[in-house]
Write a structure and sequence with these properties.
2 copies of one chain form a homodimer.
Chain A (H helix, E strand, L loop, with lengths): L4 E6 L8 H13 L3 E7 L1 H8 L9 E5 L10 H7 L4 H10 L5 E4 L3 H12 L13 E3 L4 E5 L9 H19 L5 E6 L9 H11 L5 E7 L10 E3 L2 H26 L3 H20 L8 E3 L5 E4 L6 H16 L2 H16 L1
Helix pairs in contact in A: 1-10, 3-5, 4-5, 6-7, 6-11, 8-9
């Protein structure tokens, strides 16, 4: 039997810590007996939380870390000075191969800084992108980069496209995933300077299935599997997805309550409606991996509940089992040797 | 009695031309007897369409233009070579003060090029932005720029903010409108280079009510009245609004049809639901003005129906009646004289 995959959880990160990360860990180990979860953070706090549950105790370990990085802290300073924070301790475990992955619902900025400076980048990856799955009419698409690297350069976007393709093919199981670049029109000459420079480079890249530009209108329709964009654009897309879904649902609920007839209708339709809305909730798809690091770091939403943490744990396991990082390294190595 | 406001319509532009522009014109003149509408395009085609309606004939005029600019044409070439197109002829009427405004559902690119080269820019406006109203939970916000000027510079965004404030105050009637810049976080130090440079300039601008950064998540919640952004970002926001609304509605409809109980519920709730959804449809808010020109040019959606054209006509009338362009000129003139 191969050694169990070990996933490290920031037990102090996010709005619902420590309850959500601890419960998520318990949920995960109850479902699979071949994995290990390490909860990193203040030992007594975690122990108190864990004592609420029954679980196979050999599958959960606590690693003490006394400090907490707060959301408002300056990311670089926080990572540099809080050596005994759950985030720094957890990421060092990944760096030192004591864990395969690290999950946190804490400060995005600190996760990005820590990922790069502590875990470190794969050779050939200059800017590790944050890549969440977003729901579409037919399934999911990978949005890459959604917030790690503002003002990225064309060559960075090409690496995003390659890593995103590997992820979608081996984690989501989409053969030959369609890669598109976010643009303001579908013609090749359209776009800002970044897109105009990146487009021909993607077109020439024979390891990906580049299908051209995608207008944001087509993203929810599932117009491509890997949606490549610069981080500012990706962040705008991700957050508008969230805000607009919430708003439309609240507007629709308001509409349903506007007449007696529609109220009765709403009461009958609500269970089906809730299920539908849930299927369009980005948080059910686990967290956003920071791709291209020497180990896996996953950021989950700040208000993650136990289910999202559990899903993120299984996402990390799938990432390790499918040897995604090895595949990324192989592809980037082949290309750099071809270039020489 | 002052002279009637004259609005020029591109009778050949858009997916539903000439039917929709002609009917929209008829709808408008039936509602107000103090306006004139000029239909520009192929005279016989327009005449045939007009003959279907009864309307006060002295309020609608036809101006012949034999050529049509197609959607796929290169905008600069089209405007330069098709001198007798409905778009060029209509815009020249605005330039020559024969009309107060020009509305087209035709090629966006050609409208942008024609607006700048034929109608011309107000002194002090280097980049005229396209500024549609988008629906929010509480009303509408102005998204400026949504597609005219990719790779704009900070000083352009500051002019957008000023013009957008005047528009929202005098057309939509929002006193002291809240101006925000689209960003990927709310802290002042966040953002890409463009936002970081623009933020302090907006902060120092005392003719606007700058409230800081807005994350795209807050746009549908009505987090600001004037949403300032570079055109690439604005275009992504506008089109994602469209795509995501369509997708969510289709997903919700699918969900409602999933069980017998929910089907009955849906039948009861549908009229109210349709009304709600309509209130969140961007096209009901008329067209997008290209602000900062020596006259008004309005772009409506390519698939505009008569209602949108009619709404756009009233929008143009309101623009003229409220002397928006004069207000923009005054403010920019005051500032340039203060700077000297």
């Amino acid at each position: 039997m191969p050694e169990a995959i070990r996933v490290c959880i920031d037990a102090m990160g996010g709005d619902n810590a420590p309850a959500a990360p601890v419960q998520g860990a318990v949920d995960a180990v109850k479902l699979r007996n071949d994995i290990k979860v390490v909860l990193v953070g203040q030992e007594d706090v975690i122990q108190a939380e864990l004592s609420k549950y029954e679980y196979p105790s050999e599958q959960i370990e606590i690693v003490n870390a006394t400090e907490i990085i707060e959301m408002a802290e300056h990311p670089v300073n926080a990572i540099r000075t809080k050596k005994d924070s759950s985030m720094v301790v957890g990421m060092k475990m990944v760096r030192d191969r004591q864990a395969d992955a690290f999950i946190s619902a804490g400060s995005s900025g600190a996760i990005l800084v820590g990922g790069q400076t502590i875990v470190g980048r794969i050779k050939g990856v200059k800017r590790p992108p944050l890549a969440p799955l977003i729901p579409t009419e037919n399934g999911v698409s990978l949005l890459i980069d959604c917030g790690a690297n503002v003002d990225a350069r064309p060559e960075h976007l090409v690496t995003f496209a390659k890593m995103g393709s590997i992820y979608m093919e081996h984690i989501v199981g989409i053969k030959n995933p369609r890669v598109a670049i976010v643009n303001i029109g579908t013609e090749e000459e359209k776009g800002n300077n970044l897109v105009k420079e990146t487009y021909p480079m993607l077109k020439e890249c024979d390891t990906i299935n580049f299908v051209g530009s995608i207008e944001s209108r087509e993203i929810p329709h599932g117009g491509a599997d890997v949606i490549v964009c610069e981080a500012f654009t990706g962040n705008v897309i991700l957050k508008l997805y969230e805000g607009l879904s919430q708003t439309l649902i609240s507007v629709i609920k308001g509409g349903l309550m506007s007449t007696l007839k529609s109220k009765i209708g709403a009461a009958l339709a609500l269970p089906a409606l809730k299920k539908t809305i849930k299927s369009f909730d980005a948080s059910t798809y686990g967290g956003a991996p920071l791709l291209g690091l020497n180990g896996l770091v996953v950021k989950t939403h700040g208000n993650s509940k136990n289910t999202e943490i559990k899903n993120a744990i299984f996402q990390c396991i799938s990432f390790s089992e499918n040897r995604i990082n090895e595949k990324i390294k192989e592809q980037l190595a082949v290309e750099s040797s071809t270039e020489e």
